[in-house]
Amino acid sequence: MVRPIMKDPVFLAQKSAPASAEDREVAADLMDTLLAHRDGCVGMAANMIGVNKRVIVFEDGDAYRTMFNPEIVKSSGAFETEEGCLSLAGTRRTRRFRSVKVRYQNEQMQERFKTFTGWTAQIIQHEIDHLNGILI
Predict the structure, then answer these.
(1) Is the pTM higher than 0.90?
(2) May I ask the CATH architecture of the domain 9-131?
């Protein structure tokens, strides 16, 4: 189900609670919402649809991925950039890393590790910031 985009900065500034297998429906709604906005959006965190759980979805090349409880465990190649967000007006300067190693759970709640680089790494960092209550 496509859900409305949350724009309340007080809600978005809250840290998200751990996700569980019961949050698969949230992940499905989050993916539906991302796909409905794909012309101007490449990733979303669950709090962007009003659910305070650690779930993100994002574009990864020609595919889309879902992560439960993602955490960056290693990063390298810091750089400054400018980003926008569906939940906020305009763009803002921020610091990102060219490469990130992420620990997460897949849709079967199995722990995984994967290293992402470039644009995909930047998207993931933005969405994990959302989960941590950080607004760019």
Answers:
(1) yes
(2) Alpha-Beta Complex (3.90)
